[in-house]
Design a protein that fits this description.
The complex is a heterodimer of chains A (196) and B (277). With 196 residues, chain A is of the alpha/beta class. Helix content of chain A is 30%, strand content 20%. Chain A has a single domain, classed as Methylesterase CheB, C-terminal domain (Rossmann fold, 3-Layer(aba) Sandwich). Chain B is of the alpha/beta class. Chain B folds into 2 domains: 73 residues, no CATH class; 191 residues, Vaccinia Virus protein VP39 (Rossmann fold, 3-Layer(aba) Sandwich). Chain B is built from 10 helices and 10 strands. In chain B, strands 6-2-1-7-8-10-9 form a 7-stranded mixed β-sheet. In chain B, strands 3-5-4 form a 3-stranded antiparallel β-sheet. The chains are: A alpha/beta (196), B alpha/beta (277). At the A-B interface, β6 and α3 of A face α1 and α2 of B.
Chain lengths: 196, 277
């Protein structure tokens, strides 16, 4: 997996238990982490921006809710806004949509993962964390089809097992890692620093 | 074949399909954002039984019913009454006082879809005592959706959400006054429906639309690429009176647009802008 030094983006999908899990994944990443990170966390349509504030407190990276037509930049984390799908265009900018929910979710992980798979093809890492439904499985399969890489949180370390388990069951995970190892592993993959 | 090539080939097929639709039916989706269009096409391809986009294009050219199904996929914008209550609250506080200064007010909901947001605004105008001097236009490019908007019938299970939104938006009465309900659906009161002129207008291909005091176009520009966004924003500029208001969706922005100098932000968070004088 040393090929991931030419990674251009990381996408992360999670649902219940995600806020805590995201903090743990982002924590080890340095402020100058060279790859943009795009996140779908299932969230109530009425949610305010508590998630952005929470992650800002727990990460060195710059965190924002995505605006339509944002161009992902290194060192930044883009979070899908409540009640919008977040898509990646082939020209590698973000767009938002209020098309119907998918897997009962808006934002939906499949929408982000499937569009990101076409935009970044082999230069993409997808991560599936804790969650109690199977949104993201189709998206993970698409990323695999485009020869990107998928990391699944090990279900034993997930507050809700179904989301990572579903990806694992479809043989769409390249590697299964405990929650506290995922951030360090990203540093290894992308910066080439040693991994214990 | 490498993955970039596959994506590129797929893109060629989709571009040709959109070209075909434009030539055959006059609807121009060529400057919509690609990821959005591709997803809607993928969905229709899967349930159509067509082998690929070229087969689908053939079917689209010879089968207008099939085209109309696709047109619906491409125009559905799922909204709510009083979606983003904070926006309506801000509009009540900042835009309504401005509207009061005019003897006659023209409002335009561009891309109104099934009409929820246009009805929301009519309710607010009524509560503010302005409705009798307002003409509200609501336009969309899909006649089927316009018919739904004119009907003003919404599933009853949505009404709870609409009611919550209405209350959060600073609604002054009981929301139940604005509709009648049966077991499955809620029907907007005729007196509200009479206040809106629902009519066909295509932002992509049609021109200036009257001299408006305020234009609402929320969560429509997100489907357009930069070039088309610029064109439509210019159209809005030309359709507004000097000092008229433009209200966009809360995640939309003029930042990257050629038109950012033509408007000034009034409430930046809620994306309420004003045409510069």
């Amino acid at each position: 997996m040393s090929t991931m030094k030419d990674c251009n983006a990381i996408v992360i999908g999670t649902s219940s238990g995600g806020l805590n899990a995201l903090s743990k994944v982002l924590k080890p990443l340095a402020r100058d982490f060279p790859v943009p990170i795009l996140i779908v966390q299932h969230i109530s349509p009425d949610a305010n921006d508590f998630m952005v504030h929470h992650l800002r407190k727990n990460s060195n990276l710059q965190i924002k809710e995505a605006d339509d037509k944002d161009i992902p930049e290194k060192g930044w984390v883009y979070i899908a806004p409540p009640n919008y799908h977040m898509l990646v265009e082939e020209e590698r900018f973000l767009s938002l949509a209020v098309t119907p929910p998918e897997n009962f979710s808006r934002p939906s992980i499949d929408v982000l993962f499937e569009t990101a798979a076409d935009a970044y093809t082999t230069h993409l890492i997808g991560i599936i964390l804790t969650g109690a439904n199977n949104d993201g499985t189709k998206g993970a399969i698409r990323i695999k089809d485009r020869k990107g890489m998928i990391i699944a949180q090990s279900p034993e370390t997930a507050e809700a097992t179904m989301m990572p388990q579903s990806v694992i069951d479809k043989n769409a995970a390249d590697i299964i890692l405990p929650l506290d190892q995922i951030g360090k592993y990203l540093n290894t993959l992308i910066l080439g620093t040693s991994y214990e | 074949m490498n993955e970039e090539k596959k994506v590129e080939n797929n893109r060629i097929e989709i571009d040709l399909l959109l070209e075909g639709i434009h030539r055959k039916y006059g609807y121009d989706f060529r400057n919509y954002t690609n990821a959005h269009i591709k997803r809607r096409l993928e969905y229709r391809l899967k349930i159509s039984g067509c082998k690929n986009y070229m087969a689908m294009l053939h079917k689209l050219i010879y089968n207008e019913v099939f085209f109309n199904e696709l047109l619906l996929d491409l125009s559905i914008n799922v909204s709510e009454m009083f979606r983003d209550p904070g926006f309506y609250q801000a509009a009540r506080e900042t835009v309504i006082p401005y509207l009061r200064t005019y003897p006659f007010i023209k409002l335009w909901h561009a891309g109104c879809s099934a009409g929820q947001e246009a009805y929301s605004m009519v309710i607010m105008l009524k509560e503010e005592g302005l409705i009798d001097k307002c003409q509200v236009y609501a336009t969309d490019f899909n006649e089927l959706i316009l018919a739904k908007a004119r009907d003003g019938i919404y599933p009853l299970d949505q009404i709870k959400k609409y009611t919550q939104n209405y209350q959060k938006a600073g609604g002054k009465r009981s929301f139940g006054e604005y509709y009648t309900a049966d077991y499955h659906s809620a029907l907007i009161r005729q007196s509200l429906k009479d206040r809106i002129l629902f009519t066909y207008h295509n932002l992509v291909s049609d021109g200036v639309f009257g001299e408006m005091n305020i234009i609402f176009c929320r969560n429509v520009l997100i489907y357009f690429d930069q070039k088309l966004q610029n064109k439509v924003l210019k159209l809005f500029y030309d359709s507004l009176v000097p000092g008229g208001y433009l209200c966009l969706g809360t995640k939309e922005s003029l930042r990257f647009s050629d038109c950012s100098q033509l408007f000034e932000p009034v409430i930046p968070d809620q994306k309420i802008f004003r045409k510069k004088r």
